Amino acid sequence: MQYRALDKNGDYALGQNDIKQGKEAVAQAIKTRLSLLYGQWWENTEEGLPLFEKILGSYGNHKEMIDMLITERIADTKDVKEIKSYTSTFQNRVYSANCIVETIYGTISVDIGKVQ
């Protein structure tokens, strides 16, 4: 897999050596797929992470629902074989997570960061 690198602002980097390959590309693909919210991309409004559509106005354990949505999105990322481990916290309306993912290129650690 090849993936255009992102700069510190999350925009595509243009120029020499701005292509990620292998495990790094899969890690970036996961982060990019998680940052795209459902309906946000005009070319395919069915694509994206449906956090608000699935959680707003719903009852139950929101952390479990978010875990499920995010792990499904990670598992559906190209070249991901399996999620080996996944840990998350949800405190004071801030969700953060980390995971270990097995790809066709080897094992990677992905820090999903914080979602508020």
Write the layout of secondary structure elements.
Blueprint: E1 2-4, E2 19-21, H1 22-35, H2 51-55, H3 62-75, E3 80-91, E4 94-103, E5 106-115
Antiparallel strand pairs: 1-2, 3-4, 4-5
Detailed description of the structure:
This protein is α+β, with helices and mostly antiparallel strands and 116 residues long. The protein has one domain: Nuclear Transport Factor 2, Chain: A. The chain contains three helices and five strands. The protein has helices at residues 22-35, 51-55, 62-75; strands at 2-4, 19-21, 80-91, 94-103, 106-115. The longest helix has 14 residues, at 22-35. The chain starts with a strand and ends with a strand. The model has no long low-confidence stretch (mean pLDDT 88).
Question: Can you summarize this structure?
Answer:
By secondary structure, the chain is α+β, with helices and mostly antiparallel strands.
> Element order, helices and strands?
EEHHHEEE
Low-pLDDT stretches = none
Helix segment count?
A: 3
Number of strands: 5
CATH architecture: Roll
Strand order of the largest sheet: 3-4-5
Percent of residues in beta strands:
25-35%
Q: How large is the radius of gyration?
A: 15 Å
| Separation, N- and C-terminal Cα atoms | 30 Å
Domains (count): 1
Shape call: globular
CATH class: Alpha Beta
Q: Look at the helices and sheets and give the structural class.
A: alpha+beta
- In helices, the fraction of residues equals 25-40%
What do the pLDDT scores average to? 88
